[in-house]
Amino acid sequence: MEAHKYDRFDYKDFVLDEDFRAWLNGTAPEKDQLWEKWLLANPSRHPEIEKARKIVLALNFQGKSVPDYDIGQQWKRLESSIAASEAAKEGETPSRIRSFTWIWRLLAAACVVVGAFLFVNRYLTGHHAPASAYVPVEHKTANGQQRKLLLPDGTRVTLNAGSAISYPQEFEEDVRKVSLSGEAFFDVKRNEKAPFVIITGDVVTKVLGTSFNIRAYPENKAVQVAVVSGKVKVNAQIGSEDQNACVFLSKSEMATFQKEAGELIVSTYDEKEQIGWKDGMLYFQKSDFHSTILKLERWYGVKFEVAPGVRMDADWRFSGKFQDKQLDYILGVMSYPGRFSYKINNSVVKLQ
């Protein structure tokens, strides 16, 4: 960190600076003390830092590349959203309470909201948090692994293979936010004063206390939220970045967000297919060849190599329920009758 170069930076310069973004996103904890020392020595730069912080975190939430985005336009949108909401609530509640409560009223009040409001909801509550608060706790599982976690609020999480979850070391008083990539089963400790919010790309899931499963692998074409108990609210971005849809789910209901079509659909679900994994059950229901291979790679921690001569009928589908079975056994079922041969060499499976 070349501290002297930041003395004349404005908020746009900070947004474009890789070292600043790395520190803010928690990927450079070794520089925390340097940044905190610089902030103490340069109080006049705090307003520019605060603008840059809101923009960087909002762009991260949108999944946008910072250099490719109009930084000035992003700030105008955030500023207008904040001002509009504060004006609407002026005089109704004390200012200290208002600054922490209006954000969640936005999310709860409407199913179709302006995208910028969601960005403010995601990040503005950390306005006065110290730098260390932005360094999340992160847990990852490799393919072939599962992991049970106990979050700071008492919520229990089972993380499936090839997944990652991050959350603050201490949750805020009025909201509990986590980010998920992959799949996890949540048993959320109830707290009506602090909703539990899971962010998975374009989908935001909000609960008070319930149990449910979220499947949100980046390579999948859909995000699925299946409710086991209680009630769940699911918001999803559809169409342009300013359009959102939401649904409310009860026990035995599932929301499926189709990424390409931008559709949010409610249905019932097969419990074995959606939740059986946490009890050691590998379940396939009319799964195509590519999806079957991908699921086996995650479950067993292997890599498939398919020889050019192996061709599967486009209409081929695989169904089955396997409890604690070896990979060799499943491949035998899949290949019958003579669709392909296979060899397992350590973590590599060759289909011939």
Automatic annotation (TrEMBL):
The keyword Magnesium does not apply. Residues 282-349 form the Protein FecR C-terminal domain. Keywords: Membrane, Transmembrane, Transmembrane helix. The chain crosses the membrane at residues 102-120. Residues 139-233 form the FecR protein domain. GO terms for molecular function: sigma factor antagonist activity. This is FecR family protein. It comes from Dyadobacter jiangsuensis.
